[in-house]
Fold each of these.
Amino acid sequence: MERPALQRLLTSIRNGLIDVVVVYKVDRLTRARVDFARIVELFDARGVSFVAVTQQFNTLTSMGRLTLNVLLSFAQFEREVIGERIRDQVVAGTVRQDVGRAGVIVPFRTASPGMSPLRSRFA
């Protein structure tokens, strides 16, 4: 929750300046269930209503909280999948440096006497 705008929002809520928080989608506020649980706890303590414009649920009922937790579970899953894809692309980028013309990983060979290491690798 190291987002400056979110911190300003939470400070305003603590100071009693805000009574309704409206977002486009729940995952625009946060994608982490733990963070959202803390935020909703603050909302409840300060009597702040929470509205997601594109998603219908009521955080005051047990069914609304369940729906919200399911949505946040998927949002957190999506965030983790995006992170995995980025890590895979970074690894793939380092592997691509070792790929030959035919798309096959070229094994590294030691240089023969009189041959440069670079040339021996692709010989």
Amino acid sequence: MNCSIDKIIFSKPKKHGEYLICKVKYDDSESNQLVVQLPKMKVVDNFIQSEEVEVPKNVSLEFINNKSKYNKEVYDFLSKLDDYIINFIHKNSLEWFSKEIPLDFLSKMYNKFIKAPKDSESQCTMNFSLKKTKEKLDCVLMDNKKNELELSDFKKDSLVECITQLKYIIFSKDTCFTIWELCNIKLYKKIKRVPKFGFIEDSTEVNNQDSTSDFEVEEDYSFF
């Protein structure tokens, strides 16, 4: 992980419809974006669950392989970031909201982006939105061979690797939560192995073939 929490910049929240929105930037990148490459994660539900829905509002991914070094680094970073955001809002509450909000109240109001079961550290999930530009999907979807994919290709229990950006902190009247946007999603397809069978050569055919002139060599194609 190359991200440093102390380089994250939070703008003062501004009114947008029914919400207050705080923009998130990163002080050590050309784009000023806080971008994180996630480890391999599991798709919790089909991205497209109905033919009527072209682009889902949110998708949920589950952390797997907790023993992986990179998985642990990302998970620890995100967990610390959750706590950092709560404390940052608390310290700036008087300036942002014209009143001090106690830390214990903020802890209840803030929806952590890592959802962890109460009885286990496994099966932790995160919710994401998909990157859009002018209401159109602007998220790169591909497989591990860099072939372009559709949202419908991402099924429940599929393995994916994603690049995500922390865009906003959203404040309603009594809750606040973050918006993580998926920019790139790579799907790891399962390759079905064909059982190996041995063929017995017909000695008559072998003897009658001229290896240099009696047959043509076809081009080799593969699906993967």
Amino acid sequence: MTRSPDSNDCRDCLAAMAHRLAQPMTALRGGIELGLMGKRSVADYRSLLEQSLQLADNMAQMIISLRDLGESGAPGGPPQYVCLEATATEVLAEMEGVAQSRELRLQLEVERAVKVRANPERLREALQSLLGWVIQNSAGGGVLAVGLSASGGEARVLLSPPRLDLQYLQIKVLEDITTPGLLFSHAAKNGALGWAINQRLLDGLGGKLEILTDGPDAGCVRVRFPLAPESAAL
């Protein structure tokens, strides 16, 4: 982000993120002050604590996003030929608890074993970040399927949540923005910072992130990677 040719974009980005972080902090302080004003019932205190916990979670998520934002453009280690199925299996196991807290059940569907050329650790981190974002933005419980397939010289990862709680236009406005500072500024203002971070992480691995809007997979999130030569020959 600091390498953006236009420092105004970076300032806009930081201002937008600071504003989003200040909102839950102000609400949390207000809730604590309200709880200290006079005597209240146990139910009232419990409600205030639940609201405070949710606000604290929101701030924690924003701080994690800031960390990911800083790391999204960092160079990774040397690439290797990586089996997508093994990486996806590891990621789903790590995220099972998070999914269960949102009443989601993760399911891996492998149409074909494929390999991609990427740094194994960065690939695992990128897929874990993306799956976490999809879980966070899923509306309602059910099965969240992660499908692996190959077509046209590409390896494809398809994440199919029951329903995404996100407006497509929030993502659409980011499609043609390539300058990092401007991208993150617009993303922060439009509530799509997590998407922009995942986009950058996957771009660095040669992947293409998109939300499908037509056909049977409309509303699903897809990542496309170039197939490793040995997989393309199968």
